[in-house]
Amino acid sequence: MAADLANADAQARILAILRSPPLPEEGAQLAGERKERELKIEFAGLAPADALLIRKRFQGEKTDDELAVAFKRLNVERRDRLLVFLADPRRPLFTA
Fold first, then answer.
1. CA-CA 20 to 30 A from 18: which of 71, 77, 79, 90?
2. How many CB atoms lie within 10 A of CB 79?
3. Mean pLDDT, the chain, as a whole number?
4. Residue 85 has what DSSP assignment?
5. What is the CA 25 to chain-centroid distance, rounded?
6. Which residues contact 17 (CB under 8 A, 6 or more apart)?
7. Using CA atoms, how far apart are residues 91 and 40, in angstroms rounded to an integer?
């Protein structure tokens, strides 16, 4: 895992969310919604420089970046919303 985020713990949490399987009571749709919510909470806590860095990684084409590869497994609409959220310097502190 590339360690270019200032907070390696945040990077590990983001990867864990992206890789998390659906809960027993969730279908694919609900699992995706949960992941999006949890990712927004993580992203809201990132420093602006880290948010832009991770956004750039998510938009890249590297196949050896496990964080970016895991992100690309989300559906396109969800990825687009999360990229917009990351790009907004006024990201609200998002709570569920």
1. 90
2. 16
3. 87
4. H
5. 22
6. 35, 38, 39, 42
7. 9
Burial 42-75 (b: 16+ CB within 10 A, else e): bbeebeeebbebbbebbeeeeeebebbebbbebe
Query: How many residues are present in the chain?
Result: 96
Amino acid letter, 49: A
CA distance 1 to 77: 25
The answer to whether 43 and 89 have CB atoms below 8 angstroms apart is no
Rounded to an integer, what distance in angstroms lies between the CA atom of residue 52 and that of residue 31? 25
Residue 57 has pLDDT above 80, yes or no: yes
Please tell me the pTM assigned to this model: 0.85
